[in-house]
Design goal:
This protein is an alpha/beta fold. It has 4 domains: 4-31 and 42-210, Alpha Horseshoe (Serine Threonine Protein Phosphatase 5, Tetratricopeptide repeat), CATH 1.25.40.10; 225-264; 273-389 and 547-613, Rossmann fold; 391-537, Response regulator (Rossmann fold). 47% of the residues lie in helices and 12% in strands. The chain contains 24 helices and 15 strands. The chain has helices at 4-12, 45-55, 63-76, 83-96, 100-107, 117-130, 133-146, 159-173, 177-188, 195-210, 214-220, 227-244, 247-264, 292-307, 337-344, 357-365, 391-404, 418-433, 452-459, 472-484, 523-528, 550-560, 566-583, 589-598; strands at residues 277-285, 319-324, 348-354, 370-373, 384-386, 409-415, 437-444, 465-468, 487-489, 509-515, 536-537, 601-603, 606-608, 623-626, 629-632. Strands 6, 7, 8, 9, 10, 11, 14 and 15 form an 8-stranded mixed sheet that branches. Strand 12 and strand 13 form a beta hairpin. Helix 11 (214-220) packs across helix 12 (227-244) and helix 23 (566-583) packs across helix 24 (589-598). The radius of gyration is 34 Å and the shape is elongated. The relative contact order is 0.07.
C-alpha cells in the first residue's frame, strides 16, 4: 500500500491546497443540522450551538482549528445526541490531515448502535491508508456502486475523491487491477476535479496497467470498457496478440487504441511498420555520458556484421540504425526512448542494446526481438534475450569441467565481496552435485595485492583443484604467490596437445587452477606466464586465434588495429543473431522472434541458445593457458 505521502500529494492537488479545502470560508450548515430530531426535546441548546460551530469548520482549510473544535465539543458534551456525527467529522478531518490511525481510533469510540453508514465509509478509507486492502474493499464495496454517504449528516464535496482513490488503491492491492483502473477513471471524471488531480489519476492508472499481463488485458477488453480503460489496457493487449502471432488483430487493435488515445488527448504513438523491415537492424547503446565508451566498443563489433557479404557472396544491403541509450527521453516523459524510436520510427526488425526496463517493455509491446547486453534472463513474457553469460554460469562451467577431469577435492580462494561469495556459492553447489567436495573457502579483502596468509592456509590442505573467482589482474598476483608455496597449475592433459605436456618437477605440487578471469587479456601472459601454464579460464570471451573466432579476430585487427574485447564480441554476436535469423527466412518480427527463441547460433562467445525464460543456456567457453598463448579448450 502506498504511504500517506502519496495520498497527501493526491489530496493536496499539487500546489492548490488540500482537497479538503475546496470551499472558501465555512462550510454551510443546513438549518436542521443541529436541531433535535422530531419529537425530541431541546435538551442542550448550548451543545447544539457548539456542534454547529465545530461542524462549520470541518470542511474548511484550517484542519487544525476544525480538529480542536470537534475535540472540544466531544469533551464538553459527552452525551450529546450529535456525538456520532462529531466523531465522524473528526475522523474525516484526521484522514485528510494524514492521521488515518487516529481516524480509526476515533471511529471505534462510537457506540455500535449509533453508527451510521459514514462510519463504515470512513473506516474503509482509513483501512486503505493503513494498508489493510482486504478490509478496505469490504467496507467500501457498497459505496463503490452507490456513491459516498453524508458525513456527520453533511454533504462532503470531497467524499467522491476520497472514495475513488482509496477504492482504486485497495482494489489494486487485492488483485483486481482492472477494477482499480475503473476507479481512477471515475476519479478523474468527478465534476470539479483539478487538472493536477486528473493527471495524477492517469499516472496511477498507468502504473497499475503496467503490471497487468498481456493476456489479462486482452481478456478485459473483450467486454464493454470506457475509453480511458481501453487506453490503459490497449498496449499490453496488443502485445499479447503479437505474442500469439496474430499480427492482423494486433494491428486492428493498435489502430483502435491509437484513436481512443488521441480522443482523450493522450500521445497515441507512431504506427510504424508492425512487421519491421528485414534489412533494418537496431542498436541502442550509450553514446554519451559515463558509458559512452561502452557504446563505441559494442558498435565496432556490430559494424563488422553489417559489412559481411551475404551467404551468396553479394555485398550486404543491411542498414544499422543507432540510437543513444543514454540520451534524455526524445519525447517528454518517455523512458526507453531509444528502443521506442528504433521500433516505431526506424521500423527495425530487431535490435541489440543495453539493459533498459522501459525499453524492454516497449520492444515487447511491438513484438521486436531485443538482444540484451546483460547477464540476467528477462523472462518469457518479453521479447528480450540475455546475451551475456551470467558470472555464476561461468563458475559452474569451470566446476563441471574440473570434475570431468577427475578432480574431487576443491578449494575456493576468492574475495570477501558479495560477488565473490555468490560465485563461490554457485561453484560449490555445482561441484557438490557432481560428486565433489569443497575442502575450504579461503577469502581475502577485495582488491588485495598480498596473499601470504591465504597461501599458508593452502599449504596445510589436500585438494585437487583451486578456484579463484576474481579478475585476471588478481590471478596474475595470486599465481606467483602459489608458486612460492610450490603449488603449480596442472595442465589438463586430456585436452591439451601432447606436445604441450611436460613432466612434473619432483616435489612440486600440482592442482587444477580455475578462474573466471574477467577482463582477461595478454597482460596475464606478460606478467605471469610461467605461473599460469595450464590454468583454465572462463572470462566470457578471449580473442583466441582458433577456428571459431580466428577470422573475426583477424578482420577486427585489420579494421581497427587492435584485438577485440568481450564487448566487441558481444556486439558482433548480437547483430549476427538478428541477421542470421533474417537469412534463415525471418521476414517479420514474429518470424525473427520465433527463430531466436528456438534456434542455435554459432557466435564468438559460444553456440548461443536461449531457454524458456529467454536466458542464455549454452555453456560458456573455457580457455586454457598453453605456452605463450591462451586458446580455446575443446
Amino acid at each position: 500500500m502506498r504511504s500517506w505521502v502519496l495520498f497527501a500529494f493526491l489530496l493536496a492537488g499539487c500546489a492548490s491546497g488540500q482537497v479538503g479545502a475546496r470551499q472558501e470560508g465555512p462550510f454551510p450548515i443546513s438549518p436542521d443540522a443541529g436541531a433535535p430530531e422530531a419529537g425530541m426535546p431541546r435538551e442542550d441548546r448550548g451543545g447544539d450551538a457548539d456542534f454547529r460551530a465545530a461542524a462549520s469548520k470541518a470542511f474548511a482549510s484550517d484542519s487544525a482549528a476544525a480538529r480542536s473544535a470537534l475535540e472540544a465539543f466531544l469533551a464538553n458534551h459527552p452525551d450529546h445526541r450529535r456525538r456520532p456525527a462529531a466523531l465522524a467529522l473528526l475522523a474525516r478531518v484526521q484522514i485528510v490531515s494524514g492521521d488515518a490511525a487516529g481516524a480509526k481510533t476515533t471511529l471505534e469510540k462510537a457506540d455500535p448502535s449509533g453508527r451510521t453508514p459514514d462510519f463504515d465509509f470512513l473506516l474503509g478509507i482509513a483501512a486503505s491508508r493503513l494498508g489493510n486492502a482486504v478490509l478496505a474493499v469490504a467496507l467500501l464495496r457498497p459505496f463503490i456502486a452507490s456513491g459516498p454517504p453524508l458525513i456527520g449528516g453533511l454533504t462532503d464535496a470531497d467524499a467522491p475523491l476520497l472514495l475513488r482513490a482509496a477504492a482504486a488503491e485497495a482494489l489494486a492491492e487485492t488483485g483486481d487491477p482492472v477494477a482499480a483502473i475503473v476507479q481512477w477513471d471515475q476519479y478523474r471524471s468527478i465534476d470539479g476535479t483539478r487538472e493536477s488531480e486528473r493527471a495524477y489519476a492517469r499516472r496511477r492508472a498507468e502504473e497499475v496497467a503496467e503490471k497487468i499481463p498481456g493476456e489479462a488485458a486482452l481478456s478485459a477488453l473483450n467486454g464493454p470498457r470506457s475509453p480511458f480503460v481501453r487506453a490503459m489496457l490497449g498496449a499490453h493487449a496488443v502485445a499479447a496478440l503479437r505474442a500469439r502471432g496474430d499480427e492482423a488483430s494486433a494491428v486492428r487493435l493498435e489502430q483502435d487504441i491509437g484513436l481512443v488515445r488521441r480522443n482523450l488527448g493522450f500521445d497515441p504513438g507512431l504506427a510504424g511498420t508492425p512487421t519491421g523491415d528485414p534489412l533494418r537492424l537496431g542498436l541502442a547503446v550509450p553514446q554519451s555520458g559515463a558509458q559512452a565508451r561502452l557504446g563505441e566498443v559494442v558498435l565496432r563489433g556490430a559494424m563488422l556484421v553489417m559489412a559481411e557479404p551475404t551467404p551468396a557472396g553479394d555485398p550486404s544491403s543491411y542498414h544499422l540504425f543507432v540510437r543513444d541509450a543514454a540520451a534524455p527521453a526524445e519525447r517528454a516523459g518517455t523512458a526507453g526512448a531509444a528502443a521506442w524510436s528504433l521500433a516505431r520510427e526506424d521500423s527495425v526488425i530487431g535490435l541489440l542494446g543495453t539493459f533498459d526496463p522501459r525499453g524492454i517493455e516497449l520492444a515487447t509491446r511491438d513484438g521486436v526481438p531485443f538482444l540484451l547486453l546483460d547477464e540476467h534472463a528477462p523472462g518469457a513474457r518479453t521479447t528480450a534475450f540475455q546475451l551475456i553469460h551470467a558470472p555464476e554460469s561461468r563458475a559452474i562451467a569451470l566446476a563441471q569441467r574440473a570434475l570431468s577431469l577427475g578432480a574431487r577435492r576443491f578449494v575456493v580462494l576468492g574475495p570477501d565481496s558479495a560477488s565473490g561469495k555468490r560465485l563461490a556459492g554457485s561453484f560449490s553447489h555445482a561441484l557438490t552435485a557432481g560428486g565433489g567436495t569443497l575442502v575450504a573457502h579461503i577469502t581475502y579483502v577485495a582488491g588485495a595485492t598480498s596473499f601470504s596468509a591465504q597461501v599458508n592456509e593452502l599449504r596445510k590442505l589436500a585438494f585437487d583443484a583451486l578456484f579463484v573467482p576474481d579478475e585476471a589482474t588478481r590471478l596474475e598476483l595470486i599465481a606467483p604467490a602459489l608458486a612460492v608455496a610450490n603449488i603449480w597449475p596442472r595442465r589438463p592433459r586430456l585436452l591439451v596437445a601432447p606436445s604441450s605436456a611436460s613432466t612434473p618437477t619432483a616435489g612440486r605440487r600440482e592442482v587444477l587452477l580455475l578462474s573466471t578471469a574477467l577482463s582477461l587479456s595478454e597482460r596475464l601472459l606478460r606478467n605471469a606466464e610461467r605461473y599460469v601454464q595450464g590454468a583454465m579460464l572462463c572470462p566470457g570471451y578471449y580473442p583466441a586465434e582458433d577456428a571459431r573466432s580466428g577470422n573475426f579476430v583477424a578482420r577486427f585487427r585489420e579494421v581497427y588495429g587492435t584485438d577485440p574485447t568481450a564487448a566487441d564480441a558481444y556486439g558482433y554476436d548480437g547483430l549476427s543473431i538478428l541477421r542470421g535469423a533474417v537469412e534463415r527466412g525471418g521476414h517479420t518480427r514474429a518470424d525473427v522472434l520465433h527463430l531466436v527463441e528456438s534456434g542455435r547460433f554459432e557466435g564468438m562467445t559460444g553456440d548461443i541458445r536461449f531457454g524458456p525464460d529467454h536466458g542464455r543456456v549454452d555453456p560458456p567457453l573455457i580457455y586454457v593457458v598453453d605456452g605463450d598463448s591462451i586458446r580455446l579448450l575443446k
